[in-house]
């Protein structure tokens, strides 16, 4: 009996770090899910694509993007999709702008947003009290955001207000991300050290760690070593590293909607993305 599939992707270089796979494979999809991955798949499908020369991989999760009128703009959706990203976290907002651009420019990405705490925009001052922070957080969540972003490197709050915001988010199970820096410490290794202290054991996404250990205070090597030690001592803090080709990102795999060569399709269970390898080829190991 001949197997019938919805889609057959043939001859693509499958890169699947979670399963240790980096080989040319065929992939069969049925009912929106990956049905088989093998060197050669016998069968028929309503659609077949020859992916020779392309990389096929699980959708990338980018944990630091900007997709709002404030930063990034609407073109970011298609740029991310063409790069193989399928899920992304907007790391500033404002949430209203993120939602508006997604409605007008979206191409199948799953996008979440943390809304910024910015004096004279979402809060009145650089030293908001707990009531003001709770109100800003409640508004952000009601509009669809998953939490707050502290823009310490650009619009620093007082250290006390920063600690209050981290505590407020933790109190209601909301996400909170922090570009280190307050009015007491800069966006450097000292600011990172202070951020760890201000977190007080609460969950925190501390963005682009290597921005804080570039030799601004001491030599870069010793700052990098301190940054690693700080993360080891504060396991409740998660981080993302600054990508050399775009913006900060933490990359992992996801099973969400995707785009293939700019033409989007949705896969409810698993997803793949076909992207062209760089001219020098892909590394053998990740």
Look at the structure and name the CATH superfamily of the largest domain: Metal-dependent hydrolases
Ends distance: 40 Å
Instruction: Outline the biggest β-sheet.
Output: 8 strands, mixed
Helix content bin: 10-25%
The CATH architecture of the largest domain can be given as Alpha-Beta Barrel
Radius of gyration: 21 Å
Q: Quaternary status of these chains?
A: single chain
Strand content: 25-35%
The overall pLDDT average reads 85
The global form is elongated
Q: Which ranges are low-confidence, i.e. pLDDT below 50, for 5 or more consecutive residues?
A: 242-286
Can you identify the CATH class of the largest domain? Alpha Beta
Structural class, by secondary structure, is: alpha/beta
Order of helices and strands: EEEEEEHEHEHEHEHEHEEEEEEE
Tally of separate helices: 6
Number of strands: 18
CATH topology of the largest domain: TIM Barrel
Number of domains: 2
Could you explain how this protein is built, in words?
The chain has about 290 residues and is of the alpha/beta class. The protein folds into 2 domains: about 80 residues, Urease, subunit C, domain 1; about 190 residues, TIM Barrel (Alpha-Beta Barrel), CATH 3.20.20.140. Helix content is about 25%, strand content about 35%. It contains 6 helices and 18 strands. The strands form 4 sheets. An 8-stranded mixed beta sheet has the order 12-11-10-9-8-7-6-15, with helices on one face. Strands 1, 2, 3, 4, 5 and 18 form a 6-stranded mixed beta sheet that branches. A two-stranded antiparallel sheet has the order 13-14. The chain is elongated. The two termini are about 40 Å apart. The relative contact order is 0.15.
